[in-house]
């Protein structure tokens, strides 16, 4: 078990020491884009492969129709041998086809018709469309991972003058954030419902699948058997972090923490901070119920353009 000391990394002051953090070879920028696509792709395919009980429904149906032309997920159909990790041959092709299918969904106009720069799919376009390229906002990116590639807030900071907090359980992302996103602050924490100096986290050999639950980290959701390291790290609630840092209002809350979203939301006073937009990975009814209870609803016009995430806003805005 490897302990990671609680630490806030403020990049507006003293830079980090030179050198590569322990185990950072797993996410080193020199790693090819192809490998990164595989790591992220597996995480995305897990979301695609959710059971019908895990899908947010717009009616009584438990199997809402997907956008026309969306490529099927071959990983869900595959039946790997017990104890073996399935081979995702053509995974890059699957992601490319999914992107193309979503690009061809009718109704894309304005910002939504542009080509994305950083996010894995078109998350950044949907976020930009919601805010209409508003300048100088504040975001909280939970489960931020890499600072540029496959990141949903990179465009906001690099092109629209936003800044914010980037939070991830794995400390070795810090050096990359220092170099690529100096306007924002990186925090090495597991975001949870309460703060603790000693929380269990599961680091996956495919770092993009690391999670607070072993079942997510070892890939069991897609029949995998990935190596997992159990580590002890500090956790923090969003309330404690935002209060400590003197934040009273956020514009965007983005969460991608491999099934841990609801636990993290229970440590967040959404009525006090009242984010204009919340983006969560996965279409889970318990998460949808949380937002409904607090006066938020899914923005239906975006559901056709993103089969992975749900975009929540106050009900009066979501209904527009």
Describe this structure in words.
With 320 residues, this protein is α/β, with parallel strands linked by helices. Helix content is 28%, strand content 18%.
Q: Structural class, judged by helices and strands? A: alpha/beta
Please give the domain count: 1
Reported by name, the CATH topology is Rossmann fold
Average pLDDT, rounded to a whole number, is 77
Overall shape = globular
- Low-pLDDT windows of residues: 1-40, 42-89
CA-based gyration radius: 19 Å
Assign the CATH architecture. Answer: 3-Layer(aba) Sandwich
CATH class: Alpha Beta
Encode the helix/strand succession as letters.
EHHHHEHEHEEEHEHEHHEHEEH
Summarize the main sheet. 8 strands, mixed
Quickly describe the structure.
The protein is α/β, with parallel strands linked by helices and 320 residues long. Helices cover 28% and strands 18% of the residues. The strands form 2 sheets. It has an 8-stranded mixed β-sheet, with helices on both faces. A 3-stranded mixed β-sheet has the order 5-7-6.
Mind sketching the topology for me?
Blueprint: E1 7-9, H1 33-48, H2 74-77, H3 91-103, H4 123-131, E2 138-142, H5 154-160, E3 163-168, H6 174-180, E4 185-188, E5 190-191, E6 196-204, H7 214-217, E7 228-236, H8 238-244, E8 252-255, H9 261-265, H10 270-273, E9 277-281, H11 285-293, E10 296-298, E11 309-314, H12 315-318
Parallel strand pairs: 2-3, 2-8, 3-4, 5-7, 8-9
Antiparallel strand pairs: 1-4, 6-7, 9-11, 10-11
